Amino acid sequence: MKRVTLQAEKREVSGKGGARKLRGTGRVPAIIYGNEVAETLHIAIDSKVLIHSVRPHEAHNFIVDLEVDKMVYPTIIAEVQQDPVTEEPLHVDFYRISMDKPIHTTIPIILSGSAPGVKEGGMLEHTLREINISCLPGNLPDSIEVDVSSLNLDESIHVSDLQPPTGVEFLTELHDTVVHARRPRLITEEEAAAAAAVVEGEAAAAVEGEEGEAAEEKAE
């Protein structure tokens, strides 16, 4: 389980203008909220430190210990708002947790191994890329690894086939498909004929266009 510590400072609540001004000084506005805090805390974190520790596209399945005024708040990241162009964080919501109470979160599903169904010409469809779980913060896994080395053509692996790590409960529906080795779809004679007709029509149109241009050039 990944766990990082970030230094933060309290900030005044001053709306969008204040948030822009704060970002102009190299800091990112953020909040700490949840049942474990009496009221929402408005904080600011150094932008470079935050980007180094919390990447926008990274799964937020780790604990962030926020140090604010000599107090330490164990949290998980609930949401990261980021710039659509630069992808730099604009605002972060941290959810305060208790280490002795279960949390509900989402972690990625990672595939491993080579599926025999792919070697036989099939295609691997990874339909479920994240899974909802419940566990104590100390049992939070980085990801769930799914071995596909025994997956043949037309076979699937469902959530019910997975073994949750110790202390972890899967909340996603057990019948949901995680990965499927799909047989290549065969093209029917009708579809092949229709595709050939389209190609022939486009070729004929191109020839007519060239002949028309040649006739216009002669007329000139």
TrEMBL record:
InterPro entries: Rbsml_bL25/Gln-tRNA_synth_N, Ribosomal_bL25/Gln-tRNA_synth, Ribosomal_bL25_b-dom, Ribosomal_bL25_C, Ribosomal_bL25_long, Ribosomal_L25_dom, Ribosomal_uL5_bac-type
A Pfam family the protein falls into: Ribosomal_TL5_C
Domain Large ribosomal subunit protein bL25 beta per the UniProt entry, residue ranges: 103-184
A molecular function (GO) term: 5S rRNA binding
Keyword vocabulary terms for this entry: Ribonucleoprotein, Ribosomal protein, RNA-binding, rRNA-binding
Large ribosomal subunit protein bL25 L25 domain mapped to chain residues: 6-94
Cellular-component GO terms for this entry: cytosolic large ribosomal subunit
Range of residues in the leader sequence: none
Domain of life: Bacteria
GO biological process, one term: translation
Family: Belongs to the bacterial ribosomal protein bL25 family. CTC subfamily.
Functional note: This is one of the proteins that binds to the 5S RNA in the ribosome where it forms part of the central protuberance.
PANTHER family, sorted: RIBOSOMAL PROTEIN L25/GLN-TRNA SYNTHETASE, ANTI-CODON-BINDING DOMAIN-CONTAINING PROTEIN, RIBOSOMAL PROTEIN L25_GLN-TRNA SYNTHETASE, ANTI-CODON-BINDING DOMAIN-CONTAINING PROTEIN
Subunit record text: Part of the 50S ribosomal subunit; part of the 5S rRNA/L5/L18/L25 subcomplex. Contacts the 5S rRNA. Binds to the 5S rRNA independently of L5 and L18.
Name of protein: Large ribosomal subunit protein bL25
Naturally occurring in which organism (per UniProt): Candidatus Coatesbacteria bacterium RBG_13_66_14
